[in-house]
Specification:
alpha+beta; 128 residues; three-stranded antiparallel β-sheet; six-stranded antiparallel β-sheet; OB fold (Dihydrolipoamide Acetyltransferase, E2P)
Amino acid sequence: MNFPAELKYTKSHEWIAFDGDTACIGITDYAQEELGDLVFANLPQAGDEVFAGEAFADVESVKAVSDIYSPVTGTVLEINEELLDHPELINEAPYDAWFVKVEGVSAQEDLLDADEYAAFVEEEKAKE
């Protein structure tokens, strides 16, 4: 499984990439693998507020509907509209298939680096 070192991660399996005062948010390789083939993505609108630890989107797979949680508080600057028509892009390249770009980032949830997240995933897998 791939966990790029330049990203930060959450225990709810989202990744976040910071670029100054903005951040891109998506789900990890582990998350997309656990969800299976994604068939639908429901995203917020530009201008919507997101809050650290709260659901801001959801994805539907052949298995279930799953909430996507924001690792930060901020305002949605842009959504990845391509995911609305092609949610399978999340399965194909989870670190390219960002969900939203958020500006005015604050209240960062407890973020993990790649090594910490990899260790957490191993713990999760051991419980299965």
